[in-house]
Design goal:
The chain is built from 9 helices and 16 strands. By secondary structure, the chain is of the alpha+beta class. It starts with a strand and ends in a 5-residue tail after the last strand.
């Protein structure tokens, strides 16, 4: 088993010396995302890296160490978790990819550069239309993120090729996913990941492996909390003896097709983060806000704290409650409004207050469920952290 992570090593968590239980090979990045000039914890020992592309570029180093691990695996069962820094900031592309996508811009349309008039205060404070400097900044970020992902493409190709070379590809499950969505200009918010809308919630999930037919798309709701039980299920663990909020995706993936019921809604939670003093980007704004760049458009705050029910199936809806002084509520019908442009809370309060009561009750159920109680009536739990 091997792991390469992009945030690890804080003193409160045991420092560089701490190696989480269960791993027999550990490579953990100390601190947040870096591409050069970083420190790794290698099985509890600090390993310092500089700014040489050939020796230190982290995405490539992770790829090379993964290949080495596979070469030494002796064809025994293994689990390897590969977490490159890309496309996190500071968006440092490999030298040979720094001119790629040099004319690419972030997608327009939908909610791009649209003023969020009926949304919680953090969205309403955004300047709309955005300043030209914000547009330039977000387009540059979009390009540079794509540039860093070219090295991730190389990593995936190397790993798949190595598995094929060792005749392990047909017996290995590969999961490709991410930790959060991202916005670039939606509702005039330049760049970040901390909002309740679909553009910040949705992540890719691609899976291949034994018993999985190629070129198919599953419509069922899959959550990040499903990954751990899925891996345990693949390893042959009796899932009836495991207490987890999530559920194995394996029955959905393999043949014959799944004929049982599946979740139709799930919980989204986020606890806002802000500076106790002043935001370093915009000290005139005072305490409580954070991520105020560019142009002092703040992307987060202490009271950007929310809990939502997201439904998909017969009704494609989102219901969110904010823990702020307004007790703000946002509700969207994504069937008719896929870009979440119109908050229908006020209309529902007048015309269908029972629906709002039902959604509030459902939210409470999802917030308090644990383990098997989250598996009833199709409800499951997912938490978002920054």
């Amino acid at each position: 088993r091997s792991s390469d992570l992009n945030q690890y090593g804080h003193k409160a968590g045991g420092g560089v010396q701490y190696m989480p239980p269960g791993w027999n090979l550990w490579n953990g990045l100390v601190g947040n995302s870096r591409y050069y000039n970083y420190t790794l914890s290698v099985n509890g020992q600090a390993e310092t890296h500089g700014d040489s592309y050939e020796k230190d570029y982290l995405t490539d180093l992770i790829a090379n160490r993964t290949i080495k691990f596979l070469q030494n695996s002796s064809n025994s069962p293994f689990f390897v978790m590969v977490c490159p820094p890309a496309p996190h900031s500071p968006w440092t592309a490999a030298p040979h990819y720094q001119e790629a996508y040099n004319t690419t811009k972030a997608p327009r349309g939908g909610s791009y550069n649209v003023q969020g008039k009926d949304k919680h205060w953090l969205i309403r404070q955004a300047r709309s239309p955005m300043a030209s400097t914000s547009v330039e900044f977000l387009d540059n970020a979009f390009r540079r993120r794509w540039q860093t992902l070219l090295s991730v493409d190389d990593l995936v190709e190397k790993v798949v090729s190595q598995l094929e070379k060792q005749k392990l590809l047909d017996s290995t499950y590969i999961f490709y996913t991410s930790d959060n969505g991202y916005h670039t200009g939606q509702f005039s918010m330049p760049i970040d990941k901390r909002q309740m809308y679909d553009f910040d919630l949705r992540v890719p999930l691609l899976v291949r492996g034994p018993g999985i037919k190629p070129n198919q798309t599953k419509k069922e709701l899959a959550l990040n909390i499903d990954l751990a039980p899925t891996f345990l299920d693949i390893a042959g663990i009796n899932m009836s003896e495991v207490t987890m909020d999530g559920q194995s995706l394996l029955p959905l993936l393999v043949s014959p097709p799944w004929n049982g019921t599946w979740r139709s809604d799930f919980l989204v939670e986020y606890t806002g983060e802000g500076h106790a003093d002043k935001d370093p980007w915009c000290p005139n704004l005072g305490p409580g806000v954070s991520e105020c760049f560019p142009d002092c458009v703040c992307e987060d705050a202490f009271n950007n704290t929310y809990a939502c029910v997201r439904t998909l199936g017969s009704r494609d809806l989102q219901y969110c409650e904010f823990s702020d002084k307004e007790s703000f509520v946002e509700v969207y019908n994504l069937t008719s409004d896929p870009h979440q442009l119109v908050n229908i809370f006020s209309a529902l309060k007048k015309d269908d207050p029972q629906f709002l009561q039902d959604m509030n009750a459902r939210l409470g159920q999802l917030q308090t469920c644990v383990g098997v109680s989250c598996h009833t009536h199709g409800h499951r739990r997912v938490s978002r952290r920054a």
